Amino acid sequence: MTDEGSSHVTRGSQLFRLGILLLTGSMVTSVAITVGVGSASPAGATASNSQNPAPNYLNWAKTKANYPCYATKSYSCTTPTGYDPLVNGKGSPSAKKTDWAWREYGPGQASVNSFGYHNCTLYVAYRLESEGVPDPGVLGFARDWASKASSKHILVDQTPAQGAIAQWNVAGGGLGHVAYVESVDPGNAGITITEDNFVPSNAKSFPGGYTAEIHIKAGSKVWPANFIHFIKTVPGVKVFSGVEYGFNGASAIALDGPHVWVANTTGDSVTEMNSANGAFIRKVFGGKYFVTPTALAVVGSHLWIVNNGTPHGSQNFSITELNTSNGSRVRTITNANCPSCDLFSPYAMTSDGSNLWVTNEGNSITELNASNGSWVRTITNKSCVQCGIGVPVGIAFAHSQIWITNWPFSGPYSVIVLNASTGGWVKTLSGGSYGFVAPGSMAYDGTHLWVTNDASSGVTEVNTSDGSWVRTISGGSYGFNVNSPCCIAFDGHHLWVANSYGNSTTELNASDGSLVKTLTGDAYGLDFPAGIFYGAAHVWVASGNVVSEIATT
């Protein structure tokens, strides 16, 4: 049986990419995770109660907003989206009126003028439905959309994105407002929205409603309170997010069979989900459990968590053990109760089936007995002169050996191979064809080890029987963006690489390294993906505030 995991630290960007191993019966699995400072996904994002008014034809001249398509009673500002035939019924199939947008926000909810129905919620619901978003249920008045969407595990934050729904708490006589974000200016300097508006029939201006297209500069008094990021569905893909899950810097992920465990690095917590349907089970948190959890490993019925942080700035780094049946704490191993452990900024972990192996930023590797947490050995440059340990980053168990991606203080990047039984040095791979450049995460396919290279944006394949180089895969066609491939997993036939800066995952054929496909876009919930693993016939990806489940068949 083989298991593998990995990690790496991105110099300069202060992104610590960390990896882990899962031990799940006879299943070959792999996980890698990233801890980011300034991650693309805002940690712990929630709905804002901002009282900025929504833009309208009365206040646009006084704010940082202009109208590329000025307010009109007709649908000329929204006709290109296909909205016109839906709401006024001219030339559209009557069956269209049974769709959820029309049913929940049309007649009885919308105002009417000579052109047809008008309602801000009707319009954005139409846009969402047209893009494949399933009915989220009635979200109420526009002022309620952010809070109700969040309660349904839909991401709500203050970061604009094309296709998101802009939401205001103040407008329409206190009922709020929503609009569709058509585009976002570089650097989030502004947004362009299209909108429809409910207007009472007795109003002096635009009675019955109007549509418009508006550009709003960041910092404007009419800047939206929230942006709601509905997920456009793709068959075989599920995206989990929302307040209940408590994802906050979700970056490490593990499976014990019926349960999925997610480490929330910036939230100092671990979330437990049902692997069959993704339902939330519990969140475990608290100082006695976790401080910056960065890596997970499941061994038998217990979950092990590496804590990269320390309480109150002390040097008492720790590893926590939980019972997977109920989330209760079994023990916490620290330098105080295990001086020989010599834990210093621990961040990656793997298991050989009996023992745990932990990398320490302090130039060492700690081995623990997984049955009782007792110390076995600590490997340093003093005890292993040939090792040449710099910053040990990723770690994996493959071919009865421990493999460590290493960032030395001098000389080329390398992969160190140790004897899993004795901890003794076996070989070091570096230079030449290997082409290791900031090597990080690793995945084992049963005969070969695949290593991600962050700085060179490629993946190196190594034969584990003799350590020989097989091939290096790189290039734009694979979707490996610069400083991008953070982590890798093996599903039994194919490899899956998460590309942080590319907001994508790349699927490779393990037999020859050929490209299968690259997945990207909101439909997959990939927003700076940080961790990936395979389990329960699915690939699971952690992306800050979101966990995605992707079917592999």
Description of the structure:
It is elongated, with a radius of gyration of 26 Å. A hairpin with a 5-residue loop joins strand 10 (177-184) and strand 11 (190-197). Helix content is 5%, strand content 42%. The strands form nine sheets. Strands 1, 2, 3, 4, 14, 39, 40 and 41 form an eight-stranded mixed sheet that branches. A seven-stranded antiparallel sheet has the order 5-12-11-10-9-13-8. Mean pLDDT is 85; it is low at 1-44 and 90-98. By secondary structure, it is mainly beta. It contains four helices and 41 strands. The protein folds into two domains: 4-43 and 246-551, Methylamine Dehydrogenase, Chain H, CATH 2.130.10; 60-229, endopeptidase fold (from Nostoc punctiforme).
Task: Reconstruct the topology from this structure.
Elements: E1 4-6, E2 8-10, E3 15-20, E4 30-35, E5 65-72, H1 83-88, H2 100-105, E6 111-113, E7 116-118, H3 120-130, H4 145-151, E8 155-157, E9 165-168, E10 177-184, E11 190-197, E12 210-217, E13 226-229, E14 237-240, E15 250-255, E16 259-264, E17 269-274, E18 280-285, E19 293-299, E20 302-307, E21 318-323, E22 329-334, E23 346-351, E24 355-360, E25 364-369, E26 375-379, E27 391-398, E28 401-407, E29 414-419, E30 425-430, E31 439-444, E32 448-453, E33 458-463, E34 469-474, E35 485-490, E36 494-499, E37 504-509, E38 515-520, E39 531-535, E40 538-543, E41 546-551
Give a quick precis of the structure.
The protein is mostly beta strands and 553 residues long. 5% of the residues lie in helices and 42% in strands.
